[in-house]
Structures are given as structure tokens and as C-alpha cells.
Design brief:
Layout (H helix, E strand, L loop, with lengths): L5 H6 L1 E6 L13 E6 L8 E10 L2 H7 L15 E9 L12 E4 L2 E2 L15 E2 L14 E5 L3 E3 L6 H5 L2 H14 L7 E4 L5 H13 L2 E6 L2 H9 L4 E4 L5 H8 L7 E6 L5 H5 L3 E9 L12 H5 L3 E4 L5 H14 L5 E6 L4 H13 L5 E5 L9
Parallel strand pairs: 10-11, 10-13, 11-12, 13-14, 14-15, 16-17
Antiparallel strand pairs: 1-2, 3-4, 3-8, 3-17, 4-5, 5-9, 6-7
Helix pairs in contact: 4-5, 4-10
Pfam families: ADH_N, ADH_zinc_N
Organism: Fusarium oxysporum f. sp. cubense
GO molecular function: oxidoreductase activity
Length: about 375
């Protein structure tokens, strides 16, 4: 039997990672680098996945600016991935997994506890992280068999890659934290980003009435196409009044706010929330601090922080997407893992806030044979 040399085996496997650069956190911008290495071999309980597509998240931009803790420049980038299982380890008895298209869980160290990771010291999002040498910006990856979920069959590779991290974050915010029910009014801020769009699609599929904010009328119009019942430009000083004017007379309040910006959201939200309403905070892009006000206390409002989710929540989310036939929104696709110029362009889109949906990389080169 022919055994490939190390050189030819290495030529089969490319890894996108970050290169060295000098500078302070927030000022530095690590360059993209592509290296070739040997194709990995699955361990006893692992599966080998040939990745077909990967997607960016805001976390990846923070990593390039060294604004994220415990990063590794040498480890593969990106958390979101869709691929096909090509090999299984000796301890994997289910050979039907071979040829299965799968989504990769975008984190490690959180199995099923609804309150938080079972072992916080072992919890991490994958991609450019020091704790785990796992990322989706590569040709192949080996992961434990429990870290994959069958991909919904209605999704393309690029749509599947667009789902994991933002879908999980939105699902936990809506279901575990806000407990959104049919007929409730949900406000989702900053529509255009992946989490906000997933939250919009999920809420609509749950039967909720969704209202959104954005800095762009074009994005508000697109949100309406996706099922939002109203929206407001957050650059207007009193955008909350614009939202209030659009609420139905039968339910003239917001039940839950899903927010990733922070800033003055509490001040704005208390003018819209019902007594006992909830603000679910999955990020704070405006500032790492925000004010909790006395009007919020008097309203009996709840503020709930959330980040990512568990493996079980990930499976529940994917099952919901499968059942409802939801297709993630994609803003732009770049072809080829070696196309560093265009991949850098995806990061430029993110920095400028131009995207309306996910930014995705097709792993294969345009003219390359399947690996």
C-alpha cells in the first residue's frame, strides 16, 4: 500500500492562522498567514472532518486586535465550520458517520448545565485560542465525535458554516434567558450582525412579534423582509419613542430586549419594557460598562448576561433550525482558503459594519480538485 511522504501529506492540509506583529492591544492588527502541515489523524474517539466552509465572527476581529484573552497566534483561526466526516477513530463504532455533513460545536467545556459551564477553567470558544488547538480555517480538523451535530439537510455548506456561534448565542438569549413565548413583543438591537439576525429569525419562527434597531434604513428594510414588524434608527436621539409608536395597542410594551451593544440600553429599554420585563445582554460593543438605573429597579426589570451556550443548547438550536427550515443570512462569501486578500476584505467589512449577515469562506480553491 502506498504511503504518502511527509511532504505530499503536508501539501494536503492548509491552516490559516495569525502572524506576529508589534503593538498594544487595540492598536496591533495581526496579519493572516497560511501554513502547510500534515493532515491530522483522528484519535480513538475522534472523527476527521474535511471542512467545506468557515465563517467569521466579531470575536475574530477582536483576536486580530489582541482584545481577547488567552489567544494563540499559531492555532487555527475561526469557530464556525461545516464539513464532511472522512475518517473515524478506532473507538468510534458508528461507521454511518462516514460521509455525514456536520456542524462543529464552536466551544469546549460546556456540556449541558443551563446556568453556565460545568468547569469554567476549561471553557473556551474555539479558534485562535490557547486552550484548544481547534479552529475551522483549515482543510481538515479532528474533533471528538460528540463535538459534531448532523447538519440540517436544507442548508448549503456556506449556510451551515454561518450558523454555529451566532445561532447558539441567539438561542440561549431567547430560550434559556428570555423564555420568549408566541405573541410576545421582542426588541432586538443592532440588526445586521449575525447574533441579532439569528435572534430575529428564531423569534419570528417562535411566533413572537419582533422590533429591531439599526443605524441603516436599508438594514431595517431587510429586517422587515425577514419578518420584523417594525424598527427604528438608533442614531435618532429618541429612537425608543419610534419603537413605542409601532407597538400594537393590544400589547403596548416590550417583553424582552436582546442587546449586544450596552451603552444606554437600560435607560432606553425601561421606557418600553413591561413591568418585570427582561434585558438579555450578550455583548457590550459600545463600552465595557453600562448604567443600571433606579427606574429599572422600580420597573422590576431583569438584566441577564449571557454568552454562547452549552453543547446541549447547540443541539437544540440546530434541531429547531432543521424543523423550521431556517436559512442563516449571508452577507458575502469568499472562495478559497489561500485567498488572503479577499479574506482580509471580509474583516474590513466587519470593521466598517457593512455586513448584513455572516461573512463566509469557502475552503476549496476555485479551480482545485476536491481534497
Amino acid at each position: 500500500m502506498f504511503k504518502a511522504s511527509k511532504e505530499s501529506r503536508a501539501a494536503l492540509h492548509r491552516v490559516l492562522h495569525l502572524g506576529q506583529a508589534a503593538g498594544k492591544p487595540g492598536e496591533v492588527y495581526y496579519p493572516l498567514q497560511l501554513r502547510r502541515t500534515e493532515k491530522p489523524v483522528p484519535g480513538e474517539h475522534e472523527v476527521l472532518i474535511r471542512l467545506k466552509a468557515a465563517a467569521l465572527n466579531h470575536r475574530d476581529l477582536f483576536v486580530r486586535h489582541h482584545q481577547y484573552p488567552a489567544i494563540s497566534l499559531d492555532h487555527p483561526m475561526l469557530s464556525d465550520g461545516y464539513g464532511v466526516i472522512t475518517e473515524v477513530g478506532r473507538g468510534v463504532s458508528d461507521n454511518s458517520l462516514l460521509g455525514e455533513n456536520v456542524l462543529l460545536t464552536p466551544m469546549r467545556g460546556w456540556i449541558s448545565d443551563p446556568t453556565g459551564p460545568e468547569n469554567p477553567e476549561k471553557w473556551s470558544i474555539t479558534g485562535s485560542t490557547r486552550l484548544y488547538d481547534v479552529g475551522t480555517a483549515q482543510d481538515y480538523v479532528c474533533v471528538h465525535k460528540d463535538e459534531v451535530v448532523p447538519a440540517p439537510k436544507h442548508l448549503s455548506a456556506t449556510e451551515g458554516a454561518a450558523l454555529p456561534l451566532v445561532g447558539l448565542t441567539a438561542w440561549r438569549a431567547l430560550v434559556t434567558k428570555a423564555a420568549v413565548q408566541p405573541g410576545q413583543n421582542v426588541l432586538i438591537t443592532g440588526i445586521g450582525g449575525g447574533v441579532a439576525l439569528s435572534a430575529l429569525q428564531f423569534s419570528v419562527a417562535m411566533g413572537a412579534n419582533v422590533f429591531v434597531t439599526s443605524g441603516s434604513q436599508e438594514k431595517l428594510d431587510r429586517a422587515r423582509d425577514l419578518g420584523a414588524q417594525g424598527g427604528a434608527i438608533y442614531k435618532r436621539e429618541k429612537w425608543e419613542a419610534d419603537i413605542r409608536d409601532q407597538l400594537p395597542s393590544s400589547r403596548p410594551f416590550i417583553d424582552a430586549v436582546i442587546d449586544g451593544a450596552g451603552g444606554d440600553i437600560v435607560i432606553k429599554a425601561v421606557k418600553l419594557l413591561k413591568p418585570g420585563g427582561v434585558i438579555v445582554q450578550y455583548g457590550m460593543t459600545v463600552s465595557p460598562k453600562m448604567n443600571w438605573t433606579m427606574p429599572a429597579v422600580l420597573l422590576n426589570a431583569e438584566l441577564k448576561g449571557t454568552t454562547m451556550g452549552s453543547r446541549q443548547e447547540f443541539r437544540d438550536m440546530v434541531a429547531f433550525v432543521d424543523r423550521k427550515g431556517i436559512r442563516p443570512v449571508i452577507s458575502r462569501i469568499v472562495q478559497g482558503l489561500s485567498n488572503l486578500t479577499d479574506i482580509d476584505g471580509l474583516f474590513d467589512d466587519m470593521k466598517a459594519g457593512r455586513q448584513m449577515g455572516k461573512l463566509v469562506i469557502k475552503i476549496e480553491e476555485p479551480s482545485s480538485p476536491k481534497i
